[in-house]
C-alpha cells in the first residue's frame, strides 16, 4: 500500500536515489569519512551498522522488506483493533448517539427519535425503541451511514458489528499513514516508523474500537492528502510543458488533474461526516494554488502568482470544490425524504426564497435552513462536560477524553483516549523542528505537514468557550506522526550524501525533474553545487542516529504495554489504575 515515488515527488521526496529508500541514505559513491579516534565499542557499532546498511540495501532484500513492512504493520494494526472488539457490551461515550443513529439511517433513511430507555434495550439487542419520528441531529449523515453498514448486514445484537466499520477505518488509517509517509519521505524505513507508531498508538486504537465519527473523518482527510501528493507527481514537468506549448502572458489553466477531483470527492466525504473537514478543504485548496504558483515561478513565468490566480486557481477551485459539494449534498439523499426539517419549505410558504433564488428546489432550501440551525447549535454549545478540553490544552495533553469507567469488585476499568505519550510528545516537539526546517529550507513537505496539523487544530482555538474534546485531534494525529518520522529522517541524514546533494535551492525532490528540465545558470550557486566535490559519507553519525531511533521505538513499545489496560478496558486494582492517569491529576 504505497504511493508512487517519482522524480517529481516535490512534496514527496528526500532526494535519495532508488537504492536508498530503505533508510533514506544515499548509496552513491562518496568520499570515505575521515578517520577519528574513538572507543573500540563505538568502532564495532559503526562497523556493524555499515554492514547492516549494505545488507538491507541489496535489491533482493530491499524488495522483500518493501512488501513485508506494510503487511506486518497492517497485520499489527488489525490485531490491535479487532481482537475483543465486541467488549464491552455497552454503548461507550458518544456511541449512544452514533451507533443508534447509524442503525436508524439504514432502517429509515434518516435519524429517527428513540424512546426513553433506548440504550438498555439496544444493548440487549432490541431496536424496538426506534420510532419513525425524525430526530434533530447536528452532524451530517455519511459517517452514520458508514457506522451502520455492518449492522445493516449482520444485525445490531453484537457490539462487534457496531464497531467493525470504525475498526476497519482505523486499520485503513494506519495503512494510509504508511503510504503517505512513503510518498512524502521516499523511505521504507521511516514510512514504517510512522505506520508502526500509528498502529500501536492508544489514541488511534481507542478511536478505532469506538463507533465515533472522527476516526472516519481522519481516513477521508489523510486519503485526500495522498491524492494531492499523487497530483504533484510530474507537476513541475507538466508546468514546463505548458509554458512551452502556450506562452501567454499569464499561462494556461491545467484541467487534466484527476487526482484533484479525487481529493475533492474525499474531502466532500469528510465534510459529510463532520463539518470540521471543511478546514482541510480550504487549506488543501490553498496548498494546490501555492504549489502551482511556485512551479510557475521556477519554470520562468513572467507573472507566476498573478497568472495562477487568474487561470489555475479558478480551475483548481472547480476541480476540488465542485466534487466535494456534490458528495456532500448527495449524503443527505435519505434526509430529503423525511429527515428533521426536510419538509419545512413545503409547509411554510412564508420562509421560501424569492427573487433570483426562487428557482432553488424547496428541498435544498430546507437543507439550507436546517444547516443554519445546526450552525447556531455548534457555535453556541457551551454545556459543561467532565472531560471537555479546550484546544489550548491538547498539545500538552491537559485532558484526554475518558470514554468509560466502571467500578468492579477489586478495582475498576477505564477506556481512555490517551495517546502513546512518547510518540505524542515527540511529535509535538517535531512540529517545532518542522517550523525551523521550513523557515531554513522552504521544504514543501514540511509545509504540507504543518498545514495539515494546523487545519485540524487551529480552528478549535477560535472557540475557547465552546464544549470541545481532545478526541477531535485524531484527524491530525497521522500528520503529527509523519512529522516525527520526517524529523528523525533529517537527523539520520544530517551528515549523509543525500543531505548534501539536495542543496539549499532544491529542498525537496519534488523539484528534481524541473531542475533537470531547466539547467543551472552558469555562475550561480546551483551550478557551483553541480560541480562540487563528492560529499563525505559519515557512517558513524548514521549509526548513532539510528541508535536514537531504535531507543525511541523500544521505549514507545514499553509505553504502549504500560497503558494497554486503559486502552482496552482491562480491570486493575485502583492503585495500579491511578499510576496510569495522565496527567497525574486526571480524572
Span of the ends, CA to CA: 39 Å
State the order of secondary-structure elements, H for helix, E for strand.
HHHEHEHHHHHHHHHHHHEEHHHHHHHH
Low-confidence stretches: 4-21, 24-35, 498-527, 529-536
Hey, roughly how much beta strand do the residues contain?
Answer: under 5%
Q: Into how many domains do the coordinates divide?
A: 3
Helix content: 55-70%
Number of helices: 24
The largest pleated sheet is described as: 2 strands, antiparallel
Broad structural category:
mainly alpha
Query: What spatial form do the alpha-carbon principal axes imply?
Result: globular
Q: Report the count of strand segments.
A: 4
Rg over CA atoms, rounded to whole Å, is 26 Å
Assembly type of the chains comes to single chain
Mean pLDDT: 85
Main location: membrane
Keywords: Glycosyltransferase, Membrane, Transferase, Transmembrane, Transmembrane helix
Transmembrane segments: 65-84, 160-181, 188-206, 212-230, 250-269, 275-294, 315-335, 413-434, 446-463, 469-488, 543-564
Protein name: Polyprenol-phosphate-mannose--protein mannosyltransferase
Amino acid at each position: 500500500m504505497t504511493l508512487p515515488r517519482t522524480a517529481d515527488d516535490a512534496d514527496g521526496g528526500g532526494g535519495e536515489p532508488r537504492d536508498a529508500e530503505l533508510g533514506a541514505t544515499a548509496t552513491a559513491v562518496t568520499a570515505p569519512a575521515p578517520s577519528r579516534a574513538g572507543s573500540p565499542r563505538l568502532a564495532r557499532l559503526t562497523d556493524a551498522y555499515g554492514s547492516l546498511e549494505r545488507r538491507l540495501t541489496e535489491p533482493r532484500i530491499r524488495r522483500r522488506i518493501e512488501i513485508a513492512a506494510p503487511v506486518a504493520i497492517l497485520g499489527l494494526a488489525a490485531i490491535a483493533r479487532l481482537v475483543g472488539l465486541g467488549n464491552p457490551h455497552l454503548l461507550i461515550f458518544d456511541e449512544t448517539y452514533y451507533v443508534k443513529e447509524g442503525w436508524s439511517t439504514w432502517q429509515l433513511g434518516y435519524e429517527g427519535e428513540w424512546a426513553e430507555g433506548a440504550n438498555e434495550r439496544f444493548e440487549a439487542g432490541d431496536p424496538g425503541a426506534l420510532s419513525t419520528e425524525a430526530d434533530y441531529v447536528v452532524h451530517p449523515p455519511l459517517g452514520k451511514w458508514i457506522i451502520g453498514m455492518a449492522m445493516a448486514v449482520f444485525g445490531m445484537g453484537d457490539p462487534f458489528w457496531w464497531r467493525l466499520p470504525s475498526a476497519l477505518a482505523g486499520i485503513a488509517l494506519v495503512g494510509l499513514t504508511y503510504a503517505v509517509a512513503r510518498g512524502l519521505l521516499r523511505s521504507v524505513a521511516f514510512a514504517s516508523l510512522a505506520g508502526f507508531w500509528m498502529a500501536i498508538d492508544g489514541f488511534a486504537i481507542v478511536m478505532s474500537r469506538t463507533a465515533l465519527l472522527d476516526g472516519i473523518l481522519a481516513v477521508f482527510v489523510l486519503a485526500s492528502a495522498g491524492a494531492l501528493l499523487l497530483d504533484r507527481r510530474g507537476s513541475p514537468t507538466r508546468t514546463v510543458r505548458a509554458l512551452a506549448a502556450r506562452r501567454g502572458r499569464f499561462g494556461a489553466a491545467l484541467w487534466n488533474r484527476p487526482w484533484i477531483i479525487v481529493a475533492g470527492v474525499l474531502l466532500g466525504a469528510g465534510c459529510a461526516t463532520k463539518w470540521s473537514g471543511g478546514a482541510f478543504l480550504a487549506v488543501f485548496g490553498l496548498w494546490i494554488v501555492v504549489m502551482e504558483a511556485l512551479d510557475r515561478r521556477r519554470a520562468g513565468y513572467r507573472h507566476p502568482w498573478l497568472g495562477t490566480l487568474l487561470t489555475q486557481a479558478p480551475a483548481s477551485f472547480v476541480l476540488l470544490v465542485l466534487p466535494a459539494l456534490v458528495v456532500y449534498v448527495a449524503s443527505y439523499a435519505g434526509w430529503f425524504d423525511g429527515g428533521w426539517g426536510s419538509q419545512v419549505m413545503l409547509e411554510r410558504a412564508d420562509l421560501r426564497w424569492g427573487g433570483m433564488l426562487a428557482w432553488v428546489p424547496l428541498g435544498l432550501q430546507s437543507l439550507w435552513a436546517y444547516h443554519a440551525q445546526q450552525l447556531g447549535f455548534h457555535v453556541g454549545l457551551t454545556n459543561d462536560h467532565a472531560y471537555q478540553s479546550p484546544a489550548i490544552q491538547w498539545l500538552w495533553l491537559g485532558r484526554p477524553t475518558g470514554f468509560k469507567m466502571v467500578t468492579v469488585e477489586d478495582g475498576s476499568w477505564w477506556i481512555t483516549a490517551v495517546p502513546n505519550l512518547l510518540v505524542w510528545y515527540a511529535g509535538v516537539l517535531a512540529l517545532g523542528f518542522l517550523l525551523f526546517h521550513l523557515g531554513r529550507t522552504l521544504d514543501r513537505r514540511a509545509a504540507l505537514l504543518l498545514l495539515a496539523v494546523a487545519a485540524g487544530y487551529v480552528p478549535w482555538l477560535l472557540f475557547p468557550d465552546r464544549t470541545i474534546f481532545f478526541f477531535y485531534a485524531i484527524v491530525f494525529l497521522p500528520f503529527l506522526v509523519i512529522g516525527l518520522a520526517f524529523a528523525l529522517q533529517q537527523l539520520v541524514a544530517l551528515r549523509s550524501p543525500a543531505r548534501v546533494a539536495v542543496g539549499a535551492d532544491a529542498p525537496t525532490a519534488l523539484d528534481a525533474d524541473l531542475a533537470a528540465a531547466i539547467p543551472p545558470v552558469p555562475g550561480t550557486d546551483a551550478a557551483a553545487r553541480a560541480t562540487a566535490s563528492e560529499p563525505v559519507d559519515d557512517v558513524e553519525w548514521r549509526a548513532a542516529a539510528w541508535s536514537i531511533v531504535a531507543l525511541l521505538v523500544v521505549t514507545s513499545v514499553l509505553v504502549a504495554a504500560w497503558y494497554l489496560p486503559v486502552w482496552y478496558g482491562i480491570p486493575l486494582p485502583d492503585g495500579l489504575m491511578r499510576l496510569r492517569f495522565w496527567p497525574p491529576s486526571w480524572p
